[in-house]
Amino acid sequence: MSELTYRRMKDLPSTHLLGTGTPMCAGCGGLNALHQIYDIIGEKSIFINAAGCMTLLSVYPFTPFRGSWLYTAMASAPAGAQGVRDALDVLLQKNRMSMQDDMQVVVLTGDGAAYGMGLSATSGAMERDLDFMYICYDNEGYGNTGQQYSGATPHAAMTATSRGPRGFPGFKKDLFSIWSAHKPAYVATVIGTEPLDLARKIEKARSLKGPRMIIALSPCPTGWDYDPQDSVTVGKLAVRTGVWPLKEYVDGKVVHTKVPHPRKPVEEYLKLQGRFSHLFEPQRDDALINEIQAKVGAYWEDVDS
Amino acid sequence: MYRIRFHGRGGQGMKTASRILGTAFFLQGYEVQDAPRYGAERRGAPIFAYVRASKDPINERGIISQPDLVIVADDSLVPVPGAGVISGIDAHTVLLINSDEDPDTWKQRLNFNGSLFTLPVETEARAELRFIGATCTGAAARLLGVISRDALTQAIRQELAELGDAIVEENLSRALSAFGLMEAHAGTVNAGSVVSAHDYQRPQWVDLPFDQARISAPAIHAAATSIAVKTGLWRTMRPLIDYEHCNRCWWVCSTFCPDGAINVDDEGYPHIDYDHCKGCMVCVAQCPPHAIASIPEQDAQAADNEEARA
Ligand SMILES: Cc1ncc(C[n+]2csc(CCOP(=O)(O)OP(=O)(O)O)c2C)c(N)n1
Ligand code: SF4
Ligand code: SF4
Ligand code: SF4
Ligand SMILES: [Mg+2]
User: Fold this and answer.
1) Subunit contact B275:A20, Cβ cutoff 8 A
2) Please, what are the domains in chain A?
3) Is B291 close to ligand 3, i.e. is its CB under 6 Å away?
4) Closest Cα to residue A269, out of A305, A237, A292?
5) Strands (E), A128-228
6) Ligand 3 in contact with B269 (CB < 6 A)?
7) To which H or E segment does residue A246 belong?
8) Among A16, B22, B54, B111, which is 20 to 30 Å from A189 by CA?
9) In this predicted model, what pLDDT tens digit does every residue of B4-55 receive, in sequence order?
10) pTM higher than 0.90 for the full model?
11) Å from A227 to nearest chain B CA?
């Protein structure tokens, strides 16, 4: 299929494949991205899911998936994907399955697994040029266990394990670059609040072979502490402020697919979220806000140059 | 021993409410257990929390099946079977329901003759919901009669300290005003007797025969079975599309609904699946011509009932 299936908003699906009735929080930004992604990947797929919020999608006897789903330990989803891909290949080789019935092998994990515990298994899978898709829904913390910090937590965010007056002292890891350094077939960042950009990228990933790696920033009302109705607003602001750059790595090049211009001040994004409320109350912490703004500015300066 | 059960929705602070009550008991010199219970479900889904308090060591464990006091933070949970609000209540149980309807209406509805109190709902604003826990705890403390104003105050300060002074004071003022509201009913709750292990009744397990892994492994053989789960019961607000104002932009509400609970028909009109809409209100916030309104679920249900009767 060509990249041009999704040219306009109206080309996006109007009915949805992923089943309703899941236990994800009302307003879950991860689920918003997943249902859009699933519409494009389709039911001929096997999801390999590491422990995290989305494990709860399939709690016996309920599942929203129309194809298969398999659960693995937190660090091992890419290893699980290798096993599944190998099994499918054996079936194909022995003519016990036709090419038409072949399935997309899709790893689905949170950021805790992708940026941390599962990074080694992911590196191995890319090294072996495993033919699979990896979808990391990034809610910037260990959401399922109460939002402890992870390798994806942004600087200054309050988490269950970063309670000081300045929040999380570390910085969000650049997983996009870490993954790209392996030179896989495809790497992209997406977000459910930019549906067209997301659809094009998933469509492209689907058409390629080898490791295809997707990071979806996933606004999380529960872990980020905002009213669920603001979920899409928060996601749009992540892009408009430049906090979440939308880009792809393909054929050895990084291309930004949506450059926010002009960029809104990051505080518009931060202000909506309880996890950053200490930047504004009881006193405004200009130093910290400026520090965050400067980092975002420096990123885009690099892009422009 | 006092056995207290809290019912609320994920996000309404029942876990914190049970902790505050537990700490208040502790400050009064009681032995205490407090624990929340939740399953796979999230924000909006029914949540339970339990408090046991006794002057003697507590040997009981697990969920509370015969409560002395039941606190319901969200009255829309009462008719939800999975919430188990009325499970195990008898004439000695005291019920405290956060509801605008009066106690007699509830007694009649529940066919319940014991003591039942309602706390007037202070607000419909969703952002204010976070204080329900404190309000309920304040009222509960007074109904128990053994918790002083000071102990309640200290417990709130202690348990909420992390949230900063402004939030502590807001919770405190709500809790103390509810504490005052129940003054005339102080001590209505009676502690239940201690049950001995001897009287323990085993749960009614269903015995399953031993089968081969191929049969007994928890494999799901059908597609999208989650549709059988009615997450529409989580909703406290209902989105309502005004078709005269919907300009059939086609994708906004349907694409952004996290749950995929809005499908668009051939003519381009969106339809909300109320069996599954969780009431996040994302569609309300995002619809470009503001064609989706949000109304309290209870009012919507009352209107539905009216319509059915007419
Ligand atoms: C090896 C291991 N350590 C800890 C856990 C407990 N655990 C289950 S889910 C989870 C959080 C996972 O975080 P993330 O991958 O970001 O997914 P999220 O919960 O945010 O969706 C943790 C720590 C586990 N399952 N396995
Ligand atoms: S905690 Fe966050 S990521 Fe997890 S289900 Fe809830 S909203 Fe989604
Ligand atoms: S977003 Fe609003 S205008 Fe667009 S289809 Fe939905 S209800 Fe209609
Ligand atoms: S409120 Fe709207 S966006 Fe949220 S679940 Fe219901 S239909 Fe979907
Ligand atoms: Mg996470």
Assistant:
1) yes
2) 3-304 (3.40.50.970)
3) yes
4) A237
5) 132-138, 186-191, 211-217
6) no
7) strand A246-250
8) A16
9) 999 998 878 899 999 999 999 999 999 999 999 876 657 777 889 999 999 9
10) no
11) 7
